[in-house]
Amino acid sequence: MSAQFPVARPRRLRRTPAMRRLVAETRLSPADLVLPVFVKEGISEAQPVASMPGVFQHTRDSLRKAAHEAAEAGVGGLILFGIPAEKDGAGSAADDPDGIVQQALRDLRSDLGDAIVVMTDLCLDEYTDHGHCGILTASGEIDNDATLERYASIALAQAEAGAAVVGPSGMMDGQVGAIREALDGAGHSDIAIMGYSVKYASAYYGPFREAAECAPRFGDRATHQQDPANADESLREVFLDLDEGADMVMVKPAGAYLDIVRRVRDAVDVPVVAYQVSGEYAMIEAAAEKGWIDRERTIMESLVSIRRAGADIVLTYWATEVARRLA
Ligand code: PBG
C-alpha cells in the first residue's frame, strides 16, 4: 500500500463543526417555515391537544400571542384552522363573515400586517356536522361540484377578512380553478393559492382530527385523497393545479413521502411546500417523552431531510421553536 493511500478523504470536510457548516448543502431558515394554528370559537382558555403535546386549540387572544411570537422568531407564515361552535351539513360557519377564522384573520392582520404571511386552510371538514370535506348527496357521497361552490364562497370570505394565501385542502377536482375564478371575479386577483395538490389518504393525520375536531362520522377520505401506493398521479394532480392557477403546490404528508417531494421539485418551477403533519409530530414527541430518541436532534433532522428532498417551504408545528433555535 502506498503511503499516500487513500488520496480522497471525504472525512476532511467533516472534521469540525465550522467545516461541516461551511459545506452544508441544505440550510434551514425560519423564513421557510410555516406554523399551523388552531383557533376555536367559544372557549375562554386555550385547550391543550392531548395527542400533540405543545399544540393548543387557541382562543382569539391566545392565538394573537402565538402569532406574535412566531413573527418575532422570524417564522415565514402561519396557516389558520378554525373550529366553529356550531356545525351543520353545509359547513355554514366556514364562509360566515363573522366565523371564527374570519375573526381571527382580522385580528392577525390588524396586529401583524404583512410581518408574517397569513394563510388559511380552505376546507369544510372542520365545519360540517358529518366531518366530511364537502357537501353530501342523499346517499352520503361527496358532491364534487356542489362542494366547489362552497369552496369559492369560503375563499371570498377568507380573502375579505385578510388572508394573503388560501390553501384548498379538500382534494375536490377543480378546486383551484373554482377558487381562482371566484377570487378574480371579486377583485382579489392578488390573493395567492397554495394548492394542497398532492394529499394522501394518510393515517398520519390522526392527531389533527382531535386538534381540529374533524374526524368523519362515517366512512373515510379515500374517495378523494390519494392512495399511498401511487406516485405518478401526484404529478398529474400538480399539473392540474398549476393549469388552474395554483401559485405554490404542496405535498402532504412529508416524511413518508420524500420521494414525491423530490419528484414534484424536479417537475415544477413554483415553490414546493411540504406539510410535516400531526402524526409525524406526535411520533417524535412520544418517542422523545419515553427517552427513546433525542427530541431536538430528531426534529432538526426531520426538517433538514424534508428540505433536502426538495421542499422550499415546510409546514411544521415546531416552526416557532425551531426558528428560535436557528436564531
Ligand atoms: C383538511 C386537513 C387535514 C389536515 C390538514 N388539512 C385533515 C384531513 O385531511 O383529514 C391534516 C394536517 C395534519 O395532520 O397535521 N382540512
In DSSP terms (H or I, runs of 4 or more residues), the helix count works out at 11
CATH C-level class: Alpha Beta
CATH topology descriptor: TIM Barrel
Mean pLDDT: 97
Q: What is the CA-atom radius of gyration, in angstroms?
A: 21 Å
CATH H level: which superfamily?
Aldolase class I
Q: Strand fraction band?
A: 15-25%
Structural class designation: alpha/beta
State the order of secondary-structure elements, H for helix, E for strand. Answer: HEEEHEHEHEHEHHEHEHHEH
The count of domains is 1
CATH architecture: Alpha-Beta Barrel
Straight-line N-to-C gap? 48 Å
Q: How many strands, what sense, and barrel or not for the largest sheet? A: 8 strands, parallel, barrel
Helix-strand blueprint:
Layout: H1 17-23, E1 33-40, E2 47-48, E3 56-58, H2 60-72, E4 77-83, H3 100-112, E5 117-122, H4 144-161, E6 165-168, H5 175-185, E7 192-199, H6 206-211, H7 232-243, E8 248-252, H8 258-267, E9 272-275, H9 278-289, H10 295-309, E10 313-315, H11 319-326
Parallel strand pairs: 1-3, 1-4, 1-10, 4-5, 5-6, 6-7, 7-8, 8-9, 9-10
Antiparallel strand pairs: 2-3
Helix pairs in contact: 2-3, 3-4, 4-5
The structure holds ligand PBG.
Residues 121, 123, 125, 169, 205, 208, 221, 277-278 line the site of ligand PBG.
